[in-house]
Amino acid sequence: MENNGCLPCTTLREGFPAGLRVLVVDDDPTWLKILEKMLKKCSYQVTTCCLATEALKKLRERKDAFDIVISDVNMPDMNGFKLLEHVGLEMDLPVIMMSVDGETSRVMKGVQHGACDYLLKPVRMKELRNIWQHVLRKRIHEGREFESLEGFDFEGIHHFMRNGQDQCCDDVSLFSLEDCISSTRKRKDADNKHGEREFGDSSSTKKARVVWSVDLHQKFVQAVNQIGLDKVGPKKILDLMNVPWLSRENVASHLQKYRLYLSRLQRQRDQKCSSSGTKHSDSNPKDPGSSTLKNSMNKQQNVFSTDNLRCPNNGLLQLHEADFRGTVSELNNIVPGPNMTNVSHIGLDQTFSSLNSEGNSEVFDCTLPTQYTWNQVPQRKLQDDPKSQSIASMDSSPSAASSIASSAVENIIPAQSKSLMGNDLGLKTQEFDASLSLIPDLEFYQQNLLWGGEGGFSPLDEDLHFFLLQSECYDDMNFGMHNIEMPEYYYDPGLIADVPNHLFYDSADYSLVDQSLFIA
DNA sequence: TCACTAATAT
DNA sequence: CATATTAGTG
């Protein structure tokens, strides 16, 4: 009974949705990669296919090799709906359709054709996490194996979900489902206690503490800017950020911190402005310290820029920044973006006010990585404040910097990180405080290193990352390298994370990168 | 009920 | 410290 047919009960038996066998069909390799990544993050077993026909073939070969199918609607060889029909008829597996547009008629069509769900791209982690429910539901409906369900580990699922931080909407269905089924186990129980660990899925998921990397923070800031400081709320930000695994709580927490930071900043500013610090040591920052940062901060108002500055002391950093700077700019040039110019700066103030100068209403959609979007992004960049910072120097001497940068970057970075680490980070701290806005940690450095430095926001970043993020697809393309070292610490709750690193590391050739990425 | 956020816990 | 979780409020 349980095991025959379409779904091997094993899946359920194990107690987890983990291991759910998902067949993903999408003609766009990018999406395929993204989805695969995301699904794997959910501890699902993923099989991808870029052709509907191929998918069908696979399904036919082994009817019970999959638990669920996720298919794009638009595919060259076969319409997703067609595939849906076949699957429904032949193997009776739950099928989730997805597409970029959410046109009602289309969604309806999907549903009418038997899709158990219809996802809009970009798909969120949350949505994928919960797909197992369709499998379960189907089984229940078919009346099979309730028994096995009893043993089903709802607790685990809960945890799973919680961990994923989904708590809202989607879960509702889950709950209801659960309720119906399990009179046995009440969610209460599960909720109440479990201090448990993650399911042991292969990838032992860690606790999933969100690390606010530069990227993330940038996204966050961008969202804040778009919304307007006055009107921001975690929810809105979350929506704008469009980061699948992030929860409102995460954002709320960060927002809290951010506000704190802003207020502190504000305070500082007020109190002193004078420090025009005209001086600055340009290059000798020895102290990463405190003072330096502070001054810098004070001076200008641009938080962001300031932040960037935060580099600690070592020349290395400076270089970095410089490098990056150069790099960045280059990128910009390269990139087709329209507003690069604008980009230049937008200070805190603006931040506050909300700058949407650009008016890009569209948030970024990561949907298509390929398309570079930065243009849309309102960014601010850094700049500024040449003065205080040693780093500032970079500003002034871009040329040198850039040149150096390219070659140097790689080296530098690592070094830097090391230093930081070893160093204890006094730096870090300081910096951080100084700039909540960017780079709080080593990690930051490592990861992104620097865009931030730059000013914090590089236009690129967003999109780039995002796209990268979302897809690690680019692994393939990988500009040359793969992560060098970014290891553990930076594990990201979401899938995304690593990518940036590459970029950065690669920095040596941004230009290349760009081109490859964006252009074409 | 939901979202926000200050406070508090980890 | 940074982030998570809680609890009180609207």
UniProtKB/TrEMBL annotation:
The keyword rRNA-binding does not apply. It is found in: Nucleus. Residues 269-296, 378-399 are annotated as: Disordered. Residues 21-136 form the Response regulatory domain. CDD domains: REC_typeB_ARR-like. SMART domains: REC. Keywords: Nucleus, Phosphoprotein, Transcription, Transcription regulation, Two-component regulatory system. This is Response regulatory domain-containing protein. It comes from Stylosanthes scabra. The modification 4-aspartylphosphate is found at D72. It comes from the Eukaryota. Pfam families: Myb_DNA-binding (PF00249), Response_reg (PF00072). Residues 388-399 have a biased composition (Low complexity). PANTHER family: TWO-COMPONENT RESPONSE REGULATOR (PTHR43874:SF59).
